[in-house]
Amino acid sequence: MSVRRWPLALVALPALFARCVLVAPFALFALIGCGGTHTPIALTVVAAEARGGAILDRAVHTPIDDAVRLRVVHLPESASVDPAAERALADRAARLALARDAYVTHGDFDACLAALDDAALVPAALAAGDRDGAARVLTFRCACALARGDEAAALDVARTLGALGLAVPASADDISPRAERLLADAVVAAHAAPTVRVEVAVTPAGAQVALDGRASTCRAPCVLALRAGAHVIAATADGYDDAHTRIEVALDQPAQVALRLPPATPERAARQWRARSAAESDTGAALNLLQVAARDRRIVWFDAAPAPRGQLRVRLALAIDDVRPRRMERLALAADIVPATRAALRELLTEAGVIPPRPLYEEPLFWAAVVAAGLISGGISAALLFEPSVRVPVYAGGTGP
Amino acid sequence: MSARLVGAHFRARLVAVDAVGALARRARIVAVAALVIGASACVVDHPVTLGLDTRGPISCVDSATDLPLVARALEPAFIDEDVLLVFDFVRTSTFPRCRPTEIVEACASGTCTAIPSARTCLRVPRARLAEIDEADLDELRVSDFVDGQPLLLADAPTETVIVRLTVVLDGGDGSPCDATAPLARFEPRRLLGCGYSCPVALGSVDAVDIDMDAVVGTRPCDENVVRVCAGLGL
Question: In this complex, which of A388, A389, A393 lies closest to B153 when CB atoms are compared?
């Protein structure tokens, strides 16, 4: 019995054709990696120094990938110095010079006191860590008040110096022996005075707390033992501006101090980042500072430092929001620094998933594998299918039964 | 990773890349050499020996004189003509069995073609015929004309062929062994005998037997049988 098979073929062939037509593009897209479009991610690339900036400018001159848009930012070289602090220091030095001149040269004690008549002068000096400057201000205040005949005011100033734990400065030679004695007695008396418990809390927690201009005293929150009198408590933290407060501690009256640090300005963050050593310039905290300094939460830090044998060590670190940063390090000859930087940058961004992996067909190894596979399969096919050509020489036998 | 380690790593990579490159170059040279050697060595010889006279002597007779056809060589009209052993390779597009009738029928339908470039001849000089005693004519074999195992054809076709041997006098209009002339039917009066092999692919056998004067099997063999045999594929 014969069976008519053409209806089956009529269904199967179009189905097969449709499958090929539908599947082939996806397979092709999977191969060449063009299965979708990407919204470009904006990244800020920060160079550690001017030379790195020049390299970066050339490395990202042409886009690395359609999926990322890079913007190079150069941090100013002078960002390590705080101009406001410099101005305050200069102002303090000028006032002290004026007061000394009035006291020593002219004997004009009112002018001396007027030159130092700023309640914020001592707290500002202590907040900036200038204990010597604060001591000199208090010394001249005491000497001028005593010379003017205001002994009570001079004694009050001397007690303040003692409570702050300041030493009588070397320049005390300029003041009268009586004033010097008053100050020395106040320092000695302060050492013998009892202390009062003061709790210090700072936002953010973990900020470094400095008491009366000393180097870091404790890490907030902490408890301090202070003598009665005026004190200055300052706090610093990466990513925040500094803050300080003046407190008046009374005997037998424990106190609490709370400080809230304002977020750092980009300039301040850049200064904090530059204050770090080179080895710490790409830590997580350092990259957070750079994020603030660059005014972008998505940054790539770049550095090209000299390495032995005329090479450069390319270091890259990627920080996106609060995700743990990724780092990469490469050695490259100085002549190849631009393409090496570009390749390292691409690799870093690919590893972090910022840009898609390079399509398979762009990898040289892919084509090497294809050629190798072709050669191997061709060789196997040839070995299996090869039939040597046969030459058939024919000879007459010439013999019979 | 320290700078020294990184440097060593890169140097190692460079050395490795160089080594890989050298290896690839060497592999290419070896591959090309192997191809050349392989291409030159991929021709193999497959010698084939034609077995002559396996069924008996040249036995067909002239029905008019009742003498063996080979006696024609001694007739005064042909006394100066050499004898030729003409070997033809007759291509068969079908693959007939070896029965004489089937081969004749297959060739009658036009599917047999003697390959012109494959025709080869052995010339038997007249002097060699002078040694033959007339009384022995009915016992004459093709092998009597062939010394040793001469090479007939350096490279025979490997397709399915029938190998035919026609014994014929070299005279008349044009020699059958003239390589420049197209193949033509042998002159009937000069035919002395004819034999053929079974259809065979020469590339797959070592020896082929040629049966003389056996086209019609058991019937008496006369000049018509020889003419049919000599006309196969022509």
Answer: A393
Note whether B139 contacts A: Cβ–Cβ < 8 A. Answer: no
| CATH number of the domain within which A221 lies | 2.60.40.1120
With CB atoms and an 8 Å threshold, state whether A392 touches B156.
yes
Q: Which residues pair with B196 in a beta bridge?
A: B164, B211
- Among the ranges given (A182-191, B53-62, B190-199), the one the predictor scored with the smallest mean pLDDT: B53-62
Residue A137 lies in a domain: yes
Is A361 within the bounds of a domain? no
A43 closest CA partner among A348, A399, A370, A379: A348
* Structural domain harbouring A381: 2-36+371-385
Q: Tell me the percentage of chain A whose pLDDT exceeds 70.
A: 87
Residue A70 lies in a domain: yes
Q: Distance (Å, rounded) from C-alpha A224 to C-alpha A314?
A: 46
Among candidates A258, A125, A247, which has minimal Cα distance to A196? A247
Cβ within 8 Å, pair A394-B52: no
* CB-based contact B203 A308, cutoff 8 Å: no
What distance in Å separates residue B152's CA from the closest CA in chain A? Answer: 5
- Give me the DSSP letters along A96-152: HHHHHIIIIII--HHHHHHHT--TTHHHHHHHTT-HHHHHHHHHHHHHHHHHHT-HH
- The share of chain B scoring above pLDDT 70, in percent, equals 83
Least confident window among A180-184, A319-323, B86-90:
A319-323
| A116 and A138 part of one domain | yes
Does the CB of B155 have a partner CB in chain A at under 8 Å?
yes
Min Cα distance B226 → chain A (Å) is 20
- CB of B149 within 8 Å of any CB in chain A? yes
A140-177 pLDDT, tens digit per residue, is 999 999 998 999 999 999 999 999 998 888 776 788 88
Q: How close B77 gets to chain A, by Cα (Å)? A: 29
Residues of chain B contacting residue A395, judged by C-beta atoms under 8 Å apart: 47-50, 149-152
CATH number at residue A306: 3.40.50
* Average pLDDT score, chain A: 84
Q: How far apart are CA A74 and CA A83, in angstroms?
A: 19
Determine, yes or no, domain membership for A100. Answer: yes
Q: Does B146 touch chain A (CB under 8 A)?
A: yes
Closest-CA distance, A311 to chain B, in angstroms, reads: 9
Residue A399 to residue B156, Cβ atoms within 8 A = no
Q: CA–CA separation, B49 vs A32, rounded Å?
A: 62
Least confident interval from A12-21, A114-123, A269-278: A12-21
Which ipTM value was assigned to this complex?
0.79
Same domain, residue pair A271 and A250: no
Q: Tell me the per-residue pLDDT of A24-39, one tens digit each, with 9 for 90 and over.
A: 554 555 455 444 455 7
CA distance B128 to B146: 11
